[in-house]
Amino acid sequence: MKLAFIIVLGTRWHFRVRRDSWSGVLNCPDCQLPRPFLEKEAFKAFTLYWWPLFKTERAGQVVECMHCSARFFPPDQLVRTS
Ligand SMILES: [Zn+2]
Predict the structure, then answer these.
(1) 35 C-alpha vs ligand 1 centroid, how far in Å?
(2) 3 domain-assigned
């Protein structure tokens, strides 16, 4: 299984869990173990006191390791076709 090894960091990035977010077990490249992952929607937003005022850019879905909080783009199998 290939994982795109890109970690999104920065104070202006936000990650939101959606109601239909995927969750499941993936091999975490950081932990080097199978870990539970949760899908989140990544977006850049203009913030005021850490509160997002409006979105400026969307980055699609990422998956976050629930153990070490590392974030990755989801593997191809998880990409929605709809
Ligand atoms: Zn991890």
Answers:
(1) 6
(2) no
Range of the domain at 61: 9-78
Distance, CA 32 to ligand 1 centroid (Å)?
7
pTM for the structure as a whole: 0.67
- State the Cα–Cα distance between residues 31 and 73, nearest whole angstrom: 16
Instruction: Please report whether residue 2 resides in a domain.
Output: no
Q: Find residue 15's DSSP bridge partners.
A: 42
Count of domains forming the chain: 1
Report the SS3 class of residue 44.
strand
Per-residue pLDDT of the chain (82 residues; tens, 9 = 90+): 666 655 443 446 788 998 888 899 999 999 999 999 999 999 888 776 656 677 778 888 899 999 999 998 887 766 555 4
Ligand 1 centroid from CA 44, angstroms = 23
Asked if the structure places residue 65 within a domain, the reply is yes
CA 29–ligand 1 middle distance (angstroms): 7
Q: Tokens 């980055």 identify what position?
A: 59
